[in-house]
Structures are given as C-alpha cells and as structure tokens.
Amino acid sequence: MNDPVGNVRYCYTPLAAYIADTPELSLVACMGPKVSLFTTATSKNFGDLVLHPPHTGSLTLAAIRQSLAQLVEALQLFHDNKHLIVLAGVWDSWEIPKLELLQSMASSIQSSGPVMQCNNQNYYEQISHYLDQSNKCFRFNVATHIETRDQSIFSPDDEDLDSDQRENGQDSGIDSNAPSLSEHMNIHRSSVNYFVVPEALAHGCIPNAPKPYRTFSSSTTVFHIANKPSLCTTIDQAATLFGVPDLRPAICEYLQRAQADVNHDVSGVRTQGLDCQLPLDRIQIWYKLRVQQFLYHADDKVDAPQTMRLYPPSPERPHRLYDMAVISPGPDSDWPQQGIEGHVIVQLRLIFQPINTEYFATYVQRFNVTSQQGNPDGVHPGMGMHLLRWATNSRGTQVSDVVPILHI
Questions:
Q1: Nearest to 223 by CA among 334, 332, 307, 324
Q2: CB atoms < 10 A from the CB of 173, how many?
Q3: Residue 68 and residue 109 in contact, taking contact as beta carbons nearer than 8 Å
Q4: Please, what is the angle between helix 57-87 and helix 97-112, to 10°?
Q5: What is the pLDDT of residues 346-395, one digit of tens each?
Q6: How far apart are CA 254 and CA 282, in angstroms?
C-alpha cells in the first residue's frame, strides 16, 4: 500500500513467541507440564490406544471455572479452621503475601475475563485506518511547517532591511539549518550499496563468504543473489519445469562461445541437438536476482536496488512470472548513455549455476524492436517508447540463448 508521500509500504502480521519455563507461567498460559497441546491426555496417558477428547476452548473455560470454585472452597475451609492451627501452637502469624493474593484471585479473574489476544482479524481495515491517520498527521505537519515558514519570512519587524539582507535571510527569523518544504515532505531512506561488496570480497574483508561469491559487478551494474538457491535439479528437469526444451543445447552453445571468447548475440543458433552431451548435469536455480545501478542524472550516487523475478508455473503463479531486461552482447556496456543501441531486450527465463563451476548464467528469450509507420527508429512519437515483438526463427520458435548474468 502507498503511504501519504507515495512510498510503498509492506505490512506484515507480527508473529511472537514466548517460552514459559516455570509452573506459574505455565498456569497463566493455561498449560501444564507433560500434557498434550491438542487433547486432554497427560503424560500418564501417552502411548495408550485411547483417543482422548480434543482440548477445546469450552473445555478450558470449564476447567478454569472448576479450579476457581475449588480455590474459593479451599480458602473458605482454611479461614473456618485456621484458629485450630493457632490453638495447637503450630503457627500464629498469617502475614503471607500469597495468601492475601489468593483472596482476590478468583474475583479478579472473573471480572477481567480472558487474557487479551492478538487482534488477527480485519487486517486491511486496520492498515487502511492507520494509513488514513498517518495521512492526516502528515498533512497537519506540512501545513504547520508552511505556516511557520510564512510567519518567519514575512515578519513585520523586517521592514527596514534592504533587499540584499532580505535575499540573504538576515535578521528575518529564518533558520538556515531548517529543512525545506521538499525535505520535510520526502522521507529519505539509505539504500543498500551493493557496489562496495565486490571490492570488499576481492580484498578478503569477508573471509567466510561462500564461493563463488554471490555478489559481483560489471562496469554498470552490481548483482546479488541469495546464498541458498531456490532449487537444485537436473538440466532436463529444469527444462521441463520452466518450459525451455532447448536448455541443454543452449548451454552447450554458451560454453562454446565462452571458450572462444566471442560475444553473446542471442541469435538462437544451434549446432547441437536436444540430446547433446554436456560436462555437467545438475544446476542450482534462483528465482530472484537483485540488481543495482547508478542514478542516471547523478552517476556518483547509487540507485535503490531492484528485484528481478523468474518464477516457473506453480499453483500460486499459474501464469508464471518472468521479468524483462536489457543485456549487452559483450562484456563492456555504456548503458544507458546510448539507449538500446548495441543492446538486446530479452525476457529472463532462468538464472542458474552449474554445480561445481564458477559462473552464473541466465537463459533469455529475445525481443526485436519493430519499426512503426513513419518512424523507422521504432520510437512511438506520442509515448516515446519502442514497439517490441518476439524474435522467432524460421521454424517459428522463439529465439533464445544462454548468456552470463554479468551482461545484464
């Protein structure tokens, strides 16, 4: 959901756990030692063939009422007969804090009702209500800030100041260190700078980092993937899961290009069949890839990292989820200074690493920029955008290839 200044807010339901390791805490939590969490069975019943009744809320309330009644009855019995203990000379003082506490325990529990539980209903209404209140507070703070600035700028005591003094804000009550309205309205967050990580890894600053390193960079982009892959499977199984039947020959072509040190043009050329032999069989697959670049208008500042997703068909995502990217056929790129010239627009279908190797690669499917009527460069005059179409070969299948992740 969006907050008042347009930032996307992710709202999560907190999950808290607490360990009760004393008899008193177990009693407060309506639990006893060595009992079942789901049935009325105790440790003496464990292992028998009896299906004990479920431990329901109504059963717990009935047990609490019975315990309170027994407590009241025991206290009454004690007070009715405590004088006999004094006469027998066993005890003559009843200044016991717990005894006084027991006097009010039954009535206090009956008056207080059940212990407060987490409010786990109507999430969206609660979130909307919170954001609505935050929006009102934000608008009030902005209005107050503007009102305060106006009063300080147009103070009647400044009428004798000359124009230069007014422009410099001298004696006008303006705090030079006070935030401007734009700074007051915007929420500034510090983004993770992944560019410092590859350098730290190269200098051995993170000695326990798994190899090959999960954070690496090209001339324009830094990449980061999780230490643990999303999936580990064979090449043929991955080809079936992701719907890319030519994955095996595509990897074969990739290895040949890498050995010959030539560019990856995403031409879709295949010199090997679907059953070609490879020096590897199992691969690790990642469903997410974090990428980060420098800001276009301030190349000395890093932009916020973005997440590229590559999810195969599943019950949760029956229509798949594959992000688009711009790649460079060669290892060096001047993106985005020259636009898409010399680059290829693709859809990422699979990010993987063959087990026991040092490289990460991605299976991509190519798009071609289609010329539009009256615009040979393919740029729409109104939207300023390119028209893309799937690139297909003579057999009508989509043009695809495997390229290094560093070329994204």
A1: 307
A2: 14
A3: yes
A4: 150
A5: 999 999 999 888 889 999 999 988 877 666 666 776 677 778 888 888 88
A6: 16
CB 361 within 8 A of CB 352: yes
Beta strands in 250-360 (DSSP E): 282-286, 288-293, 306-311, 321-322, 324-327, 344-354
DSSP states along 174-200:
--TTSPPHHHHHSPP-PPP-TTHHHHH
Instruction: State the DSSP code for 312.
Output: P
Element (H, E) at 362: strand 361-370
pLDDT tens, residue by residue, 159-202: 454 545 444 545 445 555 666 666 656 655 667 888 888 888 88
Cβ atoms of 237 and 231 closer than 8 Å: no
The H or E element spanning position 387 is: strand 387-390
- Which residue in this structure is represented by tokens 């920029």? 369
Rounded to whole angstroms, how far apart are CA atoms 214 and 208? 12
Per-residue tokens: 89: 């000379």
Q: Please, which residues bridge with residue 290 across strands?
A: 224, 307
| b/e sequence 159-169, b meaning 16+ C-beta within 10 Å | eebeeeeeeee
What pTM does this model have?
0.56
Token pair of 50, please? 């009896």
Q: How far apart are CA 224 and CA 200, in angstroms?
A: 14
Q: Which residues pair with 288 in a beta bridge?
A: 309
| Joined tokens for residue 247 | 């994955």
What integer pLDDT is reported at residue 28 of this predicted model? 63
| 39 close to 60: Cβ distance less than 8 angstroms | no
Among the listed residues 274, 271, 287, the one whose alpha carbon sits nearest the alpha carbon of residue 233: 287
